[in-house]
UniProtKB/TrEMBL annotation:
Biased composition range(s): Low complexity: 377-388, 403-425
Pfam families named among the record's database cross-references: VanW
Region (Disordered): 374-463
Species: Pontibacillus yanchengensis
InterPro entries assigned: Glycopeptide_resist_protein (IPR052913), Vancomycin_resist_VanW (IPR007391)
Protein's recorded name: G5 domain-containing protein
Ranges annotated as biased composition (Acidic residues): 389-402, 438-454
Length: 463
């Protein structure tokens, strides 16, 4: 016969096993809840910059609730426009504290879970204007708002509307710089006004004046010179980088100091500069009240720019004397005029910073006089034959230098160039200088006792 199973003993043993298992589990739970206390976060645990070390989950949620409420009350969200600020509603930002605590990393820092309620953007539509509101890149703005809110950044929340609109949003355009030159008699710049008006210089791209005046060689060179100088004057009051610019040997009287830019097709002399900004700018040109006006239009620049001239020196002309038996009193063959040299600076935010743009040098125009020289007697001529020949040679040499001086003194032509480093490659006529070796050089350059600053230009609103 088989063995009989003692069911009473079996159930007794099973009950004892279950009891021991339950005591093991329950005892650990009882220890954790009664003796060890509630579970807390490890040292170094933080959410949104709020330290949760040693806090329970309930305490952490209360701490985060207080911090986010205080942050929203003390941090207005501002959208800066041209002349005003628009306040974005605080209801845009919604903190999800439950999810933030679920995603917490023990002993490390975690961001807050943030949601942006896009429909609440519509509250600013009337202030911004429907056309401009429809061009807002809300997705980009949402992304930046989430990043700022997720760390409860303590800095003020301000955004520029120019960073969150479609490129070329003309509703936000303004004149960032302007320059005007009076049109001299006999010069008609209307051809060039038509050619370059509305020209656009793209973001991080270069501008070449000759590209907008392909048939410039058949036009009035003086008008092209005037247009280039006016554009250059407007460009100086921006943060554009000057890459190529040329000047004349003698500055034309109708172009203000520091603003000349000579463009010559036949010599491949151009005016070139680079737009270093992330947005496009439009060049506008017009003739008004006898003046040529050039202005740059686009988004505001980050700073205000002015133009200053410093270390200006006047270069006195020399007098070249020619002798002749055909005149009986001194005659002025060519009136002289002073030259000049100076440094051109771009000042930023009222001289908080300055940048040297160029150093311009314009040579003086020599004064040429013709004076009477009597004919020597035949006796002295025969007795000083070699001296007479030498004198004749010297006289011819002077005449040659006079001709050379005349050829180089045409102030209407652009004879010298200057790159962005300011060197222009011009030199005084060496043969003319050689006729004045005995002249006192101390009077050749006159320095002003103080630095000269050109403050005739008002500040231009910078980007």
């Amino acid at each position: 016969m088989g063995q009989k199973i003692d069911f009473k003993l079996f159930f007794l043993l099973l009950s004892m096993a279950l009891f021991l298992t339950g005591m093991s589990i329950g005892g650990g739970f009882a220890y954790d809840t009664v003796l060890a206390g509630p579970e807390t976060y490890e040292n170094g645990t933080a959410v949104g910059g709020i330290d949760l070390s040693g806090l329970t989950k309930a305490e952490a949620k209360t701490s985060l609730q207080d911090a986010t409420t205080d942050w929203k009350q003390t941090h207005s969200i501002m959208l800066n426009m041209i002349d005003t600020q628009v306040t974005l509603p605080s209801s845009l930002i919604q903190f999800n504290l439950g999810q933030s605590l679920e995603e917490v990393m023990e002993g490390a820092s975690s961001p807050l879970s943030v949601a942006i309620i896009r429909s609440n953007f519509s509250e600013i539509e009337d202030e911004v204007g429907v056309n401009l509101y429809n061009k807002l890149l809300l997705q980009e703005l949402e992304k930046d708002l989430k990043q700022r809110a997720s760390s409860l950044n303590s800095e003020p929340i301000e955004y520029s509307i120019y960073d969150y609109v479609e490129k070329g949003t003309t509703e936000l355009y303004e004149t960032i710089s302007q320059y005007t030159i009076s049109i001299p008699e006999g010069v008609d710049p209307s051809y060039y006004v038509k050619e370059v008006n509305k020209a656009t210089i793209k973001a991080n791209d270069s501008f070449s004046l000759l590209e907008f005046a392909q048939d410039a060689s058949v036009q009035n060179p003086k008008a092209l010179h005037l247009m280039a100088s006016t554009i250059y004057g407007a460009t100086l009051k921006t943060n554009f980088t000057i890459k190529e610019r040329h000047i004349s040997q003698h500055r034309p009287a109708y172009i203000p100091r520091g603003r000349e830019a000579s463009v010559k097709v036949e010599e491949d002399h151009d005016l070139v500069f680079v737009n270093v900004n992330s947005s496009n700018y439009e060049l506008q040109t017009e003739v008004t009240n006898g003046n040529l006006v050039a202005r740059w239009v686009g988004y505001p620049l980050p700073d205000e720019y002015e133009v200053a001239i410093k270390d200006a020196q006047t270069l006195d002309p020399r007098t070249v004397v020619h002798y002749s038996t055909e005149v009986y009193q001194t005659q002025v063959k060519q009136e002289g005029s002073s030259g000049e040299v100076y440094k051109l600076y771009r000042t930023i935010n009222g001289e908080s910073a300055t940048k040297l743009i160029t150093e311009d040098y314009y040579s003086p125009v020599n004064r040429i006089e013709v004076r009477y020289q009597p004919v020597e007697s035949s006796d002295s001529s025969s007795n000083n034959n070699s001296d007479s020949d030498s004198s004749d040679d010297d006289s011819n040499s002077n005449d040659d230098s006079t001709d050379g001086s005349n050829n180089g003194d045409d102030t209407g032509d652009s004879n010298s160039t200057s790159g962005n480093d300011g060197s222009d490659g011009t030199n005084d006529d060496t043969s003319t200088d050689s006729t004045n070796d005995n002249q006192d050089d101390s009077n050749d350059v006159i320095q002003d006792p103080e630095d000269i600053w050109d403050i005739s230009d008002g500040p231009s609103k910078g980007e």
